Known about the structure:
The chain is α+β, with helices and mostly antiparallel strands and 317 residues long. Helices cover 56% and strands 20% of the residues.
Amino acid sequence: MENFFAGFETPNMPQRPHYPQQRREQVKKRKSANGGFFYIVPQQSAVILERFGKFQKIATAGLYFKIPVIDNIAATIDLRVNQKEIQLETKTKDNVFVKVSISTQFRVDPTKIDTSFYELQNPVEQIKSYIEDAIRSAVPTLTLDEAFERKEDIALNVQETVGEGMSQFGYIIIKTLVTAIDPAEDVKESMNSINAAQRQRVAAQELAEADRIRIVTAAKAEAEKAQLQGEGLANQRRAIVDGLAKSFEQLADSGISEKEIMSVLMINQYLDTMTALGKSGASTIFLPNSPEGIEGMRNELITALKASEKTTPAPKV
């Protein structure tokens, strides 16, 4: 029974080697795994079986029989998704050197497993070369600002270019991402200074606009205030005139002479003026301080009115 189970084996070989030393180690492991009658293929893996050194078949997950010495396991291919991080330096259209970081995800095409093994010695380095070539072709056609704005377009262009080139070798490019575009530190500082200056200019414009609105609003308020004050003063004077006219009519109807009526009105205005001056206390105005002075002002006013009537020519008929 021990000899029977000794014929079962699980290939314990790494993914396709990338360097000669790994290749030699895989050959040693392959020789040690080719001694039994049976072999097991793990899930998400595929085994390439050769007969007399020639490709025989591809075995997926499961238990298989092989003829020792005649059948040999050439390689175990990992069918899971792999990821490769790449960073390179290139120049933009406006002569700015940037470091571009790319992350690409790829896997072996399940329908081209034998092609992926026999066609390429170092598939990861081949994918890296395709990506670097695509990046150095895309970024120099864009300015620095455009490169930041169109990262997704760059990634899509790289994915299409690399995917088309690697499909013939049995590899599928699942997703390619431009994870970072990093210019030099002095370029970053310059960009930050430009952005800060732009923000300060916008802030200054907003403050100036706010001041303009405040000044215009205050001017409109003052204009409306003056208009309302003028209308109020006009209404006040109109009411005073109407009141004086009614008072004059009432005094005339009671038999008081015009001279006496004028004296009463002048005295009344004099007392109102003295009361207003006493309340204000801020201005100094020289006026007669006795009723006799008011009577003199009245006589002078009447004399001036009569002289004006005499000098004014009568209208021609």
